Amino acid sequence: MKKIIVCLTILGAMSSMNAQFNLGKAAGVVTKGAKALTFTNEDAIKLSKESVDWMDKNNPVAGPKDPYTVRLNKLFGKHKTQDGLNLNYKVYKVKDINAFACADGSVRVFSSLMDIMTDNELLAVIGHEIGHVKNQDTKDAMKSAYLKAAALDAASSASGTVATLNDSQIGKMANAFLDASHSKKQESEADTYSYDFMKANKYDVVGAYSAFKKLALLSEGSAQSGFEKMFNSHPDSEKRAQAIKKRAEKDGLWKDPGTVALPTTKLTK
Predict the structure, then answer these.
(1) Residue 61 CB contacts under 8 Å (≥ 6 apart), including other chains
(2) Is 121 part of the annotated catalytic residue set?
(3) H or E element: which one contains 148?
(4) How many Cα atoms occupy the beta-carbon half-sphere of 99 within 13 Å?
(5) Which of 42, 50, 121, 129 is the catalytic position?
(6) Count of CB atoms within 10 A of residue 216's CB?
(7) What confidence tens digit (pLDDT) does each residue in 12-50 have?
(8) 125 touches 211 (CB < 8 A)
(9) Are 97 and 218 in contact (CB under 8 A)?
(10) pLDDT at 181 over 50
């Protein structure tokens, strides 16, 4: 798999060792002078689109007739316009188990994640990613990555405007995201959004519970080298699963799924 920019993920970490995303850390690298830069959500949206376009060119994307795309269309097609957002989505055919969303409404789901998640679990992932977009979680991190890519300092950012990046700089901006991880607070808020999304659309909210149970199993698996370590800076998947269960019980929506296990074959539904 070629390098990718990771905006915000349901896992909170890549299963490969070179990518984590932390909004707090990302914001902290902005210099005092660069903080004066006027950076709006519209700027974040524009730069996100450029970054996603770059990613789409540098990763294998499932075609329109690919079974992964057909499945995602079935699940996600009705949510292209969700909660006032215009969303677009694609599948990356890569080995990493993840999904992410960016400020421009781009949602990318990895084929290996689809291999282990049922439809309801994937819907919970999608809801989580929509939550990140709705909550505008990428703005500070995109600003930091932009400043790194454009090599801006206190003097060069004095104009207070966002300059156009060339292709090389867009690639550098993508790589800048690989140095960070996102906050527990934003993950928790996206979890809440996901649950509300599932409930409002009459999906089985237990899917959110079992998705996190699977992530907990992945973090414990000896075959996932480095996976558990990267989870340490993010909300504990087991605790997130139990929070979903508690709320579902309160809402009268809990149905015991039994023992949750990782599938040994690729899931088609």
Answers:
(1) 90, 91, 92, 93
(2) no
(3) helix 139-150
(4) 30
(5) 129
(6) 19
(7) 543 333 333 333 333 343 444 445 567 788 888 888 888
(8) yes
(9) yes
(10) yes
